[in-house]
Amino acid sequence: MNLKITLYSILFGLFVSCTNNNTTSTEQLQVQLDKAIGYNDYYTAIYYAHELLAINPNLDSTAIQLAELYKVTKNYAGAIKVAEELIPKVTLEEQLVLWTLKAESLTASRNYPEAIAAYNVLKGLDKTKALEYLYEIGVLYFQARDIQNGIQTMEQVRDLPASKTTLTKIHSDWGEDNVSYYLAALNYIGYIKIETNDFDAATAIYDEITRLGVPFKLAAGNKKLLEQLKASTAKK
Question: pTM (2 decimals)?
Fold first, then answer.
């Protein structure tokens, strides 16, 4: 009887010890993961994320961190794969994070059709950012050289009432602009009109942008390009 009790005590002690070791190991790994991220040592952070998931595959927050780390290190295929695995089983808030990761990774991979599809899903999931997502879709159509859909999408952006009061940042060779989605969409349409030699339509658009009096370096640069092309055409 005493022997049985002693064996039980030993086995129970080993179980508690292993459980405590796993808990301690998980906590230590999380500390190391957070520290690596703090040092921008993303590849080390990826290692610790994998170690954590090996101990507990159900750590969804860690898996989301892993997807973000893959995107930061330009492992877009990895980020997309992790996002796709997680999306069906996480909360709506986490789905938004993962769909955004997936859309941005697809964009960086130049997989424009699937990136557009991802932003369309986001547009349906989060109505509060529908304008932002619609604009991104328009940009992607232009990057894919789908001019017709690009213009149609930017016209939808332009026509939304919120486009005149909601701001976006645009980075270009001219610097950074902080302008309304309305002006950003007009500039895209105007630039395509320049590229397609529809100078009258382009002139009307850039005159409208100028009339509104908002500093917009990219649009000002495109307007100069338009004037140069018009002058060059007139000389022929």
Answer: 0.85
